[in-house]
Amino acid sequence: MQNKYLVIYRQIAEKIQDGEFPPGEKLPSEHELMEAFHASRETIRKALNQLAQNGFIQKVQGKGSIVLDAAKFDFPVSGLVSFKELASSLGNRHVTYVEKLELIEPDKNVQKQLQALPGSKVWKVYRVREIDGEKIIFDKDYLKQMYIDNLTEKICASSIYEYIENELQMKISFAKKEIIVEEPTEEDREYMDLDGYSNVVVVKNYVYFDDASLFQYTESRHRPDKFKFVDFARRTHT
Amino acid sequence: MQNKYLVIYRQIAEKIQDGEFPPGEKLPSEHELMEAFHASRETIRKALNQLAQNGFIQKVQGKGSIVLDAAKFDFPVSGLVSFKELASSLGNRHVTYVEKLELIEPDKNVQKQLQALPGSKVWKVYRVREIDGEKIIFDKDYLKQMYIDNLTEKICASSIYEYIENELQMKISFAKKEIIVEEPTEEDREYMDLDGYSNVVVVKNYVYFDDASLFQYTESRHRPDKFKFVDFARRTHT
DNA sequence: GAGTGGTCTAGACCACTAT
DNA sequence: TAGTGGTCTAGACCACTCA
């Protein structure tokens, strides 16, 4: 059996998506939900807080929980953007080319980015993403070898995240992202269809494990015309 | 008196920033914190969850709460980016020029973005941000008049957010952000020091009130060389 | 004043990590 | 086995909204 509050979360989320709780309307009160789900108030509140954090509802003191129009938001590129999500939202025909897959001794820059120990090795993966016939994303990944022994081209072509979480059973916990704009490098011009564009958007991703250890550094380099980043931020009452 | 869990949150956060709880070390256990702060476990946990969400600690079941290296992260441009935060992180000498401040009947595009009723009026504010002598940000704000009657140049020159939250006592609750890259418009070239740059980074901000009503649409247009966006995302266990 | 969500408590049991 | 954090409960009181 699952966590009770997650079960409740999913059931309410489903009803919102199915239109059973329409946007603009109020959810049943916490007291009513307690009876409906046979749960204590704190458990109901845990589920509602998750719903609020993920943009399903908005809680208003003294009033109730208002259902938001989820369709209005193309949903949270929540935390980690994987290429699969991106591709499905951008278009249909997408291909990944694995251009490089090497086990290297990192240079100073990568060593610093990954906070890698001297002498430790690092996987270097270059992937080019083609969507609707155009090569518009160039991903440079660096992964610490200590966490991942065997990386094959097949794994890289689908999703490294999925492999790590499903096969290796390790939990990715949080990520820091930086977005900047740069002039294209020679590598960018070599791997991407840059045409006349004089800028690339660089998304730097630092990915951490459960125990706060850094394990991956990624530079995702995008052609500017196809780049879009969506962030759905809720304010925390600090 | 304040909320107990927020007081505890702040006290622990302070100790982390002062180095009293150094990075890599473990925080006292929840049981110990209960005694130290004379609080119940749930209250301690609420404070710890806030700390985790804001990147101060990482909780690991069975082990404890590990203090993260906060200095490693230039901190969360959390939710709403206001120019004041931005400027202080970018440089010292910054000026805001209010180039336009009008009450208009919105055109179709703005009307759609704001989901404004036909016939309702909208404040249109153009502001140019100069940092270290260069005009690098051009902010176009559209605010529904129904929420804000009197907007002066003085308010615009400092912070509209602060005015709304402090003077009008309204709570801004959440925001949706979109980042894309465009070619500069004539307006961009007119108001910014764009030199030879052939792109601008456009940050579109949709700002909502407490009750989920949309009230502001902002386009913040940045010269690409000075643009940087940092996102600190934690994964939620959905 | 009735009904809503927000905070806080005390205590129970479970899941995981150490040793 | 002892100690940690994760979930759940039942009940109390407070702050806010609305008729």
Automatic annotation (TrEMBL), chains A, B:
PROSITE patterns: HTH_GNTR. It holds the Pfam family UTRA. GO terms for molecular function: DNA binding; DNA-binding transcription factor activity. The keyword DNA-binding applies. GO terms for biological process: negative regulation of DNA-templated transcription. InterPro entries: Bact_HTH_transcr_reg (IPR050679), Chorismate_lyase_/UTRA_dom_sf (IPR028978), TreR (IPR012770), Tscrpt_reg_HTH_GntR (IPR000524), UTRA (IPR011663), WH-like_DNA-bd_sf (IPR036388), WH_DNA-bd_sf (IPR036390). It comes from the Bacteria. SMART domains: HTH_GNTR, UTRA. Coiled coil: none annotated. NCBIfam families: trehalos_R_Bsub. This is Trehalose operon repressor. The lineage of its organism: Bacteria, Bacillati, Bacillota, Bacilli, Bacillales.
